[in-house]
């Protein structure tokens, strides 16, 4: 059972998502929030598997709430909801630690698949849109004095990757799913998943979205 917290300042939007989710087996809506502050509080209280987070809300917006949840060490995965496919707020949400984002008008089947993917940490949500956002805003990645660029660790961490793990990193950064990488490299999907897990651990990254960001920041792949 995937436990979900719905966060949106519009009641009708929350009702719509709840109806979709509760009509399916394997999904449970454990709470709703209309503000970023409530999202942070309820995430700590309810410990949902996935937080569906509206990115634009009055007061503490979805980006700030995402950052606070991630910084708290919560294991809850955050899926940003946005109205536009090129949205600087959604991009900021990824940098804050969200595991992906979706358009609010996403078809129900894609919504359910995305929640499953985020809950398992197994795939980048909406690779086409994620790549499009990164292509557009790649120049905005900050780099600090230690040589890090927002997420992950410095370039020296890449040297700890095996040749295959580095190859998997480049494919993940291109927006490919585990199944697509397995087909391209002619290995099993389970093998790819193992490589992804080891790659994330060595680079000190939370999930695949951060791996994409890391690859862009360190020019492993380019727009």
Features:
223 residues; alpha/beta; Rossmann fold; Arc Repressor Mutant, subunit A; 10 helices; 13% strand; globular
Account of the 3D structure:
There is one protein chain. The protein has helices spanning 11-22, 36-46, 62-71, 88-96, 108-120, 127-137, 163-173, 178-185, 189-203, 208-217; strands at 2-7, 27-33, 50-54, 77-82, 100-103. The chain has 223 residues and is α/β, with parallel strands linked by helices. The protein folds into 2 domains: 2-125, Rossmann fold; 141-217, Winged helix-like DNA-binding domain superfamily/Winged helix DNA-binding domain (Arc Repressor Mutant, subunit A, Orthogonal Bundle). A 5-stranded parallel sheet has the order 2-1-3-4-5, sandwiched between helices. The protein is globular, with a radius of gyration of 17 Å. Residues 142-152 have low confidence and may be disordered.
Give a short summary of the structure.
With 223 residues, this protein is an alpha/beta fold.
The CATH architecture of the largest domain would be: 3-Layer(aba) Sandwich
Strand order of the largest sheet: 2-1-3-4-5
Helix percent band = 40-55%
Number of strands: 5
CATH fold-level assignment of the largest domain? Rossmann fold
Intertermini distance: 38 Å
Count of all domains: 2
Mean pLDDT equals 83
Radius of gyration: 17 Å
Count helical runs. Answer: 10
Would you list the SSEs in sequence order as H and E? Answer: EHEHEHEHEHHHHHH
Main beta sheet, described? 5 strands, parallel
Structural class: alpha/beta
């Amino acid at each position: 059972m995937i436990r979900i917290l719905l966060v949106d300042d519009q009641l009708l939007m929350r009702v719509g998502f709840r109806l979709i989710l509760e009509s399916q087996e394997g999904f449970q809506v454990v709470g709703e929030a209309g503000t970023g502050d409530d999202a942070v509080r309820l995430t700590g209280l309810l410990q949902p598997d996935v937080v569906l987070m509206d990115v634009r809300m009055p007061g503490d917006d979805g980006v700030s709430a995402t950052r606070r949840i991630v910084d708290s060490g919560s294991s809850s995965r955050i899926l940003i909801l946005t109205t536009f496919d090129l949205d600087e707020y959604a991009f900021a949400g990824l940098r804050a630690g969200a595991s992906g984002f979706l358009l609010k008008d996403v078809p129900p089947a894609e919504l359910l698949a995305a929640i499953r993917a985020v809950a398992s940490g197994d795939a980048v949500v909406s690779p086409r849109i994620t790549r499009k956002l990164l292509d557009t805003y790649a120049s905005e990645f900050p780099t600090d004095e230690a040589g890090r660029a927002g997420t992950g660790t410095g370039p020296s961490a890449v040297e700890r990757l095996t040749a295959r793990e580095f190859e998997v990193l480049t494919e993940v950064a291109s927006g490919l799913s585990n199944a697509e990488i397995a087909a391209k490299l002619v290995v099993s999907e389970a093998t790819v998943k193992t490589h992804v897990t080891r790659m994330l651990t060595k680079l000190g990254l939370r999930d695949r979205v951060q791996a994409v960001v890391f690859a862009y920041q360190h020019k492993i792949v380019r727009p």
